[in-house]
Amino acid sequence: MDIKHLHYFIEVAVRKSFTKAAHHLYVTQPTISKMVRDIEDELGMVLLDRTGKEIELTDAGRIVFEQSQKIVQSFAHLSDELGNLTHAKRGKLTIGLPPMIGYKFFPNILSQFRNEYPGIDLNIAEYGAKKVADSVAEGLLEVGVTVGEFNDELFHSFVFFEDKLRLVAHKSSPLAKMTHVNLFDLRNEPFILFPEEFSLHGMIIACCEKAGYQPHIVFESSQWEFMVKMVSEKFGVALLPESILKKVEKEIDSIVTLPIENSELNWRLSMIWERNHYLSYAARTWVAKTRMLLKDCHVN
Questions:
Q1: Overall domain count for the chain
Q2: Where do the HTH lysR-type domain residues begin and end (predicted)?
Q3: Using one digit for the tens of pLDDT, what is the confidence trace for 83-127?
Q4: Which of 48, 58, 228, 246 would you label with 189, given CA atoms 20 to 30 Å apart?
């Protein structure tokens, strides 16, 4: 049994299909089936239950799967470490960026990074901020951007932007006549929020609950432009970062934006990476480069 055997087994376990795993690895199904069978024969145990519509791990298979992931990851880290000895500017890096944040802050940074480090295979995982943090903690992403509070015992980080949230309401709403609002003023309003995997979703709900009510959510979207458009159609109210709303009131005359008084809600953006975990050359380069480029950043 070697690393390739373990890698093939992991792919079958994750995709629950020999066919899908073979397609992903660009090998034939008999090849990957033989690899997995070799492992089972060597260990003297059945690792995969092949009787259902989807392949499932047996009890022994789950143990082998967990250990195989650690072995494959350790082997990858060994390769990266050896590459670092020669200061080779190559490697692979997947970065987690929430859609709104990626769109506003990173196009130019990504372009500069790719031009300066063409040997680094750079990939973007467009996840909500909560999922980014979870994925970094689970080792599925090396680095990413998240919003608001997180467990600083799990992550190294640096904050690169902070902003207040504002209320977005239709100009016909009684709220539009106010100079500012507090969260309690919104207790009877229909809310338009980001989906659950976005950190702002949980932050807004928690602050509303602290104000004494459970917000009535009528619509969820991962696109802030769509959220604003729904407000302009009198579908509900939204809470969005002040900086991304600078041009909105001028461009959409059917809405108003208002400051939220005494609110703990803010849009604090942090680059995070896992503590006590090997960080590849590519990831270390990304952290150093973005720390410099995002210093004193602003939204265009």
A1: 3
A2: 1-58
A3: 654 455 677 889 999 887 887 889 999 999 988 888 888 889 998
A4: 246
pTM of this structure: 0.62
**At residue 233, what are phi and psi to the nearest 5 degrees?**
-100, 15
Q: Are 97 and 141 within one domain?
A: yes
Q: How many residues does the chain have?
A: 300
At CA 199, angle to CA 154 and CA 127, rounded to 5? 85
Residue 126 burial (C-beta neighbours within 10 Å; 0-12, 13-18, 19+): middle
Cα distance between residue 98 and residue 156, in whole Å: 18
191 Cβ neighbours under 8 A, 6+ residues apart: 204, 215, 216, 217, 218, 236, 237, 238, 239
Q: For the residues of 202-220, what is the DSSP string, one character each?
A: HHHHHHHHHTTS--EEEEE
Q: Which residues pair with 91 in a beta bridge?
A: 120
Q: What is the pLDDT of residues 165-219, one digit of tens each?
A: 999 999 999 999 999 999 999 999 999 999 988 888 999 999 999 999 999 999 9
CA dist 291 and 160 (Å) reads 8
Using alpha carbons, select from 101, 88, 133, 108 the residue that is nearest to residue 222. 101
Q: Are residues 259 and 184 in the same domain?
A: yes
Mark whether 53 and 202 lie in a shared domain: no
Which of 141, 142, 140, 136 lies closest to 154 in space, CA to CA?
136
Contact 150, 202 (CB under 8 A): no
- DSSP designation for 142: S
